[in-house]
Design brief:
- The chain is an alpha/beta fold.
- It is built from 15 helices and eight strands.
- It folds into three domains: about 100 residues, no CATH class; about 210 residues, Nucleotidyltransferase, domain 5; about 90 residues.
- Strands 1, 4, 5, 6, 7 and 8 form a six-stranded mixed sheet that branches.
Length: about 400
């Protein structure tokens, strides 16, 4: 027998995580479990414990709720954090997703405090997207026609099972058939959602064709959607292959290196994400950046024109520039924003500013090194929550680094 407090050293990272969690505003997590008169049931686990467990687990590269449950029994740091409170993987998995809105609010509050302290500067914003492999397998994607066939088959199966349940009075066999009916109903719901996703993909192609003034969509292949993760999309990955994935949009302050914004999308292209990123920063902090740094994938003329109208300078390489200034050659019917962008990126000093965008690559690498190679959850809501845990872990380390820098300066 030994004291839990003796299990880890006084400067252990687990203690730093606990101190950080204690300083966070977790009132949104406590409100649903607040005791009320006339309410029955046992007391829930303190959300601060679950918050600290997942933050420490993310820092250690642990992304599985089942693995985290085992570590809570075998690893000294996790045992110290939970302080003798029993946890199970189901509670841990549910909390990881439910805490998503709280983590999003924490991101805004913590960065706003650093902006007030003039440690984070929102006047210059670096944005970049990273595609992360989805849980869905490639073989789970079906065409719209095949999804319609599967939907009809699933409906027939559900109807047959319901009729059989009503006609058979046997209790034991009835329970088995009830379970089969529930499973068939779940499969029908997934197929129906995949069918809607295929329609959404087709509508998006039509809008893109109209935007680019094409008579027919660029891709002639029929749209396909996954029956296991309908919100996932097949995307071009960094290695040149095509796999189901999600696109995480990171917004970083080049000065401090902190992530100031995050959004999870299922759009394969970054082209329409420039103004969406600016609007996110405006929504979070009530301020718009004056400069935006992004790679060539964000060079959508409509977005550049809108940014120019909002007084924002865009530093994006001109297509074909290969990382160096090229002479400004405006094309017919281009607006003043695009013309100003071409002229701006024809100067060497503009490329010196653009190269500060490298700061947004570090959060990507940090998340990858901590296990964000493939999502084991499904759906945009859960994907965004997992990504927010990685952003929280990265900013936690970055804030510690900045705090040391400030202390040494004083």
């Amino acid at each position: 027998m030994c004291c839990l407090d003796d299990l880890i050293s006084s400067d252990h990272r687990a203690r730093q995580v606990w101190a950080y969690v204690e300083a966070c505003d977790l009132s949104a997590l406590y409100e649903p479990i607040r005791a009320v008169e006339g309410g029955a049931g046992r007391p829930p686990i303190d959300p601060a414990i679950l918050m600290a467990l997942w933050l420490y687990a993310t820092l250690e590269g642990v992304g599985s709720a089942r693995l985290l449950e085992r570590l809570c029994d075998s690893d000294a740091a996790y045992r110290w954090i939970r302080g003798g409170v029993g946890v199970n993987y189901h509670t841990l998995a549910d909390f990881r997703v439910e805490a998503g809105p709280v983590l999003d609010d924490l991101l805004t509050r913590s960065m706003a405090a650093l902006v007030s302290a003039k440690i984070v500067d929102l006047s210059c914003l670096a944005i970049d997207g990273v595609r992360v492999r989805a849980s869905a397998g490639t073989s789970s994607f079906r065409s719209a026609d095949r999804l319609s066939q599967l939907r009809d088959l699933a409906r027939d199966k559900v109807a047959a099972l319901r009729e059989e349940l009503q006609s058979d009075p046997g209790a034991a066999s009835k329970r088995a058939r009830e379970r089969a009916a529930r499973e068939a109903q779940d499969r029908l719901a997934r197929i129906e959602e995949a069918r809607k996703a295929a329609d959404a993909i087709e509508d998006e192609r039509r809008r893109e064709a109209a935007k680019q003034r094409r008579l027919t969509p660029k891709k002639a292949k029929p749209p396909r959607a996954s029956t296991t993760d309908p919100q996932a999309r097949v995307m071009a990955m960094a290695d040149g292959g095509y796999r189901p994935a999600y696109n995480l949009q990171f917004k970083t302050d080049p000065k401090s290196g902190c992530v100031v914004g995050l959004e999870a999308t299922n759009r394969a292209s970054d082209r329409s994400q420039l103004m969406a990123s600016i609007e996110e920063i405006d929504r979070r902090y009530k301020v718009k950046p004056t400069r935006v740094l992004a790679d060539g994938g964000y060079a959508g003329k409509d977005d550049i024109e809108q940014a120019h109208g909002a007084g924002i300078e865009v530093f994006i390489p001109v297509p074909g520039s290969e990382g160096r200034p090229v002479p400004a050659e405006p094309k017919p019917k281009e607006g003043p924003g695009v013309i100003a962008w071409r002229q701006r990126m024809s100067r060497e000093e503009s490329f010196e500013t653009y190269r500060r965008r490298i700061a947004c690559e570090r959060p990507h690498a940090d998340a990858r090194n901590r296990g964000l190679q493939r999502f084991i959850v499904r759906g945009l809501k859960k994907v965004r929550a997992v990504a927010l845990w990685h952003v929280t872990a990265y900013n936690f380390l970055q804030i510690q680094y900045l705090s040391r820098q400030v202390s040494q300066a004083l």
